[in-house]
Design goal:
The protein is of the alpha/beta class and 252 residues long. 17% of the residues lie in helices and 31% in strands. The strands form 2 sheets. Strands 1, 2, 3, 4, 5, 8, 9, 10 and 11 form a 9-stranded mixed β-sheet that branches. A two-stranded antiparallel sheet has the order 6-7. A hairpin with a 2-residue loop joins strand 6 and strand 7. The mean pLDDT is 95.
Length: 252
């Protein structure tokens, strides 16, 4: 199975970071047994979020119940871009239109806050922006003015990924974020500082960005022994995911 096929299967199988409560949604509406072919390639923007959006698009496209009416709709106000809407979908039987935003995120718990490896990114800030800005764009006057023919019936946020805790520090793991319960099954990664890395009992193998979510079963490369001055994301042969962070994180 290629890395892309593994990632696609993970997108279908993995529950979201937050438990389902509108507008938080999962992919169950698109139930499909379609699998992407091993020859499937992706040559778009290499950033993980764009690859993830592409795979979500494949899941939706394969669904017998939905079609994509619009994607990446740009909304402009007086010459500047307000933002872009990921997907406007049509549910076939009702012909109702749905606005979907999708995101894949990896957050590490530090002092009761979920930080991204880039610590400017935080789960509470990201969730707030998705709910109060991204999903609201399809109700904005700019959108209605530009696209009067698109009447959105419902809004949906799909946020998948993984949450990481440090097993070498005393932590109280939050159970909710902005009133939405955190899905405990997705708190399944570990992180540590570089000076704690010797406490990891298994060899750690490097992951490419497209392997971050689903991992790998190919351990032919050399395990990680040097950490340098930035974070490392790796996996053990037993399937445990680890971030090893510089000592200055999340403040540096």
């Amino acid at each position: 199975m290629t890395a892309l096929q593994r990632f696609y299967q993970w997108v279908i199988d993995s529950p979201p970071l937050l438990e389902i409560k509108p507008p938080i949604s999962d992919l169950s509406a698109f139930s499909s047994h379609y699998a992407i072919d091993s020859s499937h390639t992706y040559d778009g923007n290499p950033r993980l979020g764009f690859l993830y959006q592409h795979l979500c698009e494949q899941v939706i496209t394969a669904s017998p119940n939905y079609s994509i009416k619009h994607d990446e709709i740009q909304i402009n106000v007086e010459g500047r871009t307000l933002g872009a809407i990921d997907f406007i979908l049509e549910e076939e039987s009702s012909q109702k239109l749905e606005h979907w935003e999708v995101a894949i995120k990896f957050y590490l718990l530090h002092e009761q806050t979920w930080f991204g490896p880039n610590s400017h990114d935080q789960l509470d800030k990201k969730l707030d922006r998705m709910l109060s800005h991204q999903l609201e764009m399809s109700s904005s006057s700019a959108f209605i003015e530009q696209y009067p023919e698109i009447d959105v019936d419902s809004k949906h946020l799909l946020m998948q990924g993984r949450l990481y805790t440090n097993p070498f520090l005393e932590l109280n793991v939050p159970t909710a974020c902005l009133g939405y319960d955190i899905n405990p099954s997705q708190v399944n990664g570990f992180w540590c500082y570089q000076d704690q890395a010797h406490l990891i009992t298994e060899a750690l193998y490097p992951l490419t960005k497209e392997q971050w979510a689903a991992g790998t079963d190919n351990f032919t490369c050399e395990p990680i022994t040097e950490f340098g001055d930035r974070f490392v994301h790796g996996q053990t042969k037993s399937g445990q995911f680890w971030f090893v962070m510089p000592q200055s994180w999340p403040h540096g």
